[in-house]
Amino acid sequence: MTSLDTIVALAKRRGFIYPGSELYGGITGFWDYGPLGTELKKNIKSEWWRSMVQLREDVVGLDAAIIMNPGVWEASGHTKAFADPLVECKVCHKRFRADKQEEIDSHGATHDKPEWTDPKQFNLLTEVYLGVTEPKQKVYLRGEITQGVFVNFRNVVDSTRIKIPFGIAQIGKAFRNEITPGNFTFRSREFEQMELEFFVKNDDQEGDKWYQYWKAERMKWYVSLGMDKGNLRFRDHRDDERAHYARHATDIEYNAPFGWSEFEGIHHRGDYDLGNHKLTYRDEAANEEYTPWVIETSGGVDRAALFFLLEAYKEEEKRVVLKLHPRLAPMKVAVFPLVANKDNITAKAQEVHAMLKAKFMTAWDARGNIGKRYLAQDEAGTPMCVTIDYTTLEDDTVTVRDRDTMKQDRVNISKLIEFIDGRLL
Ligand code: ATP
Fold first, then answer.
1. Ligand 1 closest atom vs CA 178
2. What are the percentages of helix, strand and coil residues in the chain, rounded to 5?
3. Do 383 and 423 form a contact (C-beta atoms < 8 A)?
4. Separation of CA 395 and ligand 1 centre (Å)
5. Tell me: the pLDDT tens digits for 390-420?
6. How far is C-alpha 130 from the geometric centre of its chain's CA atoms?
7. Strand runs (DSSP E) across 150-223, as ranges?
8. According to DSSP H, which parts of 109-171 are helical?
9. pLDDT at residue 337 above 80?
10. Protein residues with CB under 6 Å of any ligand 1 atom
11. Is 104 in a helix, a strand, or coil?
């Protein structure tokens, strides 16, 4: 199994993920995405959006503000209950989540006489203050993106023709004052979520049907983007960890180097959310009004980026290769002039580069020998490398080298876009 350190090092070296504010000594729980990481994250989000919104007729999108009227968080219960119990090591004053027994035990083992405080509740909402004159208004950075969907439920129903069962999808940043950020980006204080709130009739059969449906759909999505089924599993929440309102809850977990870890939660939330906000739905055809039930799928973009990187990383005999699904790969293709000192080859390669760039994220590399350039692109996960050589000048063909098989094809430039498109499915 790939170690976390290997991925942390690769992420830094190749420009996927850097520690946040590194120049000033860093800041715990915050990360910056570099040129390749930004593309990877963008691709994860657009694949999610394609499958959850674009290809469906029963889901619409939303992009709500990060800061909301604090009344939202009162009504949702977050100001009171969005809390993790926390214990403090009396020896060194480090804090840990009381529900993470393994972490507590392993920390305890570092002291001769470990001693802990009783668990205390710790609210995870991040407070910010608005306005320039006193008293400033205390508001919160959203701790989950979900509430923005619920408070716009009526707006969406009134401004579209959508009818239950339907969903509202959203992607956006969330902030949690996590007690123990760690495992690289896995537990951060600023992160991005991609969520679907799917509204169904308040009926047991409907609720169960859609809960099962979304469980299966979400698992399929990860597998369709190259996750090995053996590294994924469902883990149903135990009765003592399931929120009191949740009828069913399961996590999709990934077999990470730090143990099976939550990727995404799928929750049957009953009428809890719309009930909190006193929202109902009027079914004109059936002439009835009710509080819809919610099935939620809630995944993290940063955890997806991390787990896709872990999954894709392969050390082969003479190379390190990121076998990312082509749709997730940051760069789709790289263009190389065979030699850097022949003007006619460089000019032709620049022409091909300009043509491909208009269509795909395309890298350019003219340094060193071709073998080294291949290795650099393998490590960045680029699925194809196109080389312009002497034969190109004679017959307008180029070589296209495949990242995974390392096989080369000779392709006419006029057919190149079509050829690359065919490999990006
Ligand atoms: P955990 O038990 O790991 O704290 P959670 O059950 O609180 O997670 P949810 O509230 O269900 O998480 O959030 C939904 C998704 O948001 C998670 O599956 C995860 O992908 C992502 N997420 C939650 N907290 C974080 C975090 N601190 N850093 C990165 N991603 C997160």
1. 27
2. 35, 30, 35
3. yes
4. 54
5. 999 999 999 999 999 999 999 999 999 999 9
6. 30
7. 166-175, 190-200
8. 146-150, 153-159
9. yes
10. 144, 176, 178, 187-188, 191, 193, 262-265, 298-300, 302-303
11. helix
Atom of ligand 1 nearest to the CA of 262: 18
Ligand 1 atom at shortest distance from the alpha carbon of 176: 27
CA neighbor of 42 nearest in space, from 421, 360, 330: 330
Q: Which helix (H) or strand (E) holds 273?
A: helix 272-276
**Under 8 Å between Cβ of 170 and 192:** no
Give the list of residues 6+ apart from residue 221 with CB closer than 8 angstroms, or none. 47, 48, 51
Which residues make beta-bridge pairs with 294? Answer: 199, 270
Cα 342-344-346 angle, rounded to 5 deg: 70
**Residue 148 exposure: Cα atoms within 13 Å on the Cβ side:** 24
Q: Tokens in use for 78?
A: 């977050």
In this prediction, residue 82 carries a pLDDT of 66
Tokens of 420: 């690359």
CB contact at 8 A, 38 and 46: no
Which of 322, 316, 340 lies closest to 377 in space, CA to CA? Answer: 322
Q: How far apart are CA 197 and CA 190, in angstroms?
A: 21
Instruction: Tell me how far apart the alpha carbons of residues 192 and 302 are, in angstroms, rounded to a whole number.
Output: 6
Place of tokens 């799917």: 198
Pocket probe for ligand 1: among 303, 306, 307, the residue whose CB has the most ligand atoms within 8 Å is: 303
* 102 Cα to the center of ligand 1, angstroms: 18
Q: What is the tens place of the pLDDT at every residue in 89-131?
A: 888 878 787 878 888 888 888 898 888 888 777 778 899 999 8
Q: Whose CA is nearest to atom 19 of ligand 1?
A: 300
Q: Residue 131: how many CB atoms within 10 A of its CB? A: 10
Pocket test for ligand 1, best of 17, 33, 187 (most atoms within 8 A of CB): 187
Side-chain-side CA neighbours of residue 226 (13 Å): 21
Measured in Å, residue 300 CA sits from the centre of ligand 1 at 7
